Amino acid sequence: MIRAVLLDIDGTLVDSNDAHALAWVDAFAEADRSIPFEQVRQRIGKGGDKLMPEVSGLDAESADGKRIDALRAQIFRERYLPKLKPFPRATELLERLHADGHTLVVATSAKKEEMEALLEICGASRLIQGRTSSDDAEQSKPDGDIVAAALERAKVSAAEALMLGDTPYDIEAARRAGVRTVAVRSGGWDDAGLAGAAAVYADVAELLARYADSPFKRGG
Q1: Which DSSP helix (H) or strand (E) runs through 131?
Q2: Catalytically active residues, by annotation
Q3: What does pTM read for this prediction?
Q4: Half-sphere exposure of 169 toward its Cβ, with a 13 Å CA cutoff?
């Protein structure tokens, strides 16, 4: 029986993956580093500590790495966050999951400040019983630390939870923690990229429309 749903936010509940990628590109550009959008975009969903060295060769803990990460956070907050919208019916899906008695816990690679703002955008704050972000894990996605932390917050076993996410990194992080994933394509990945998910839907609106037949209702 499924007792908890572990929620990714970016690309799953809020249409923000492109905005995150653009913020990274802008931050690198202001640091005189030209990084193609596509190179960053395909890594959105990983922790920034992993994304940065993969696209730039910079150690995220180096002085330059920390400076660029701080700049990225500022750019995202000021240029992109105010324009973000939730995916259609995202709040309704969370209300349905909550009404069915599922404990809802966030499991995101976003930093705590960004996570809280994104939860407000999709109307999730009042429905969430627990929050885990990059601040709660030693290793970011696709390592399983964040998912494991979310399980602890939910007070359930891996078999009693499902992850809802939009990237291969969500699926891999959940797998490493022993949790199965329901995936949505709204983050930009196709079915091949989301291989390993227990079920795949176009977006949360389709998931809600087919909820009665979904793993959340069928118990996984």
Answers
A1: strand 130-132
A2: 8
A3: 0.94
A4: 27
Backbone region of residue 216 per phi and psi (left: phi > 0; alpha: psi in -120 to 50; beta: other values)? alpha
Tell which residue, 93, 76, 102, has the closest CA to residue 6: 102
Domain with 196 in it: 4-15+85-218
State the total domains in the chain. 2
Q: What is the pLDDT along the chain (220 residues), one digit of tens a residue?
A: 999 999 999 999 999 999 999 999 999 999 999 999 999 999 999 999 999 999 999 999 999 999 999 999 999 999 999 999 999 999 999 999 999 999 999 999 888 889 999 999 998 989 999 888 777 878 889 999 999 999 999 999 999 999 999 999 999 999 999 999 999 999 999 999 999 999 999 999 999 999 999 999 866 5
Q: In terms of domains, do 137 and 178 share one? A: yes
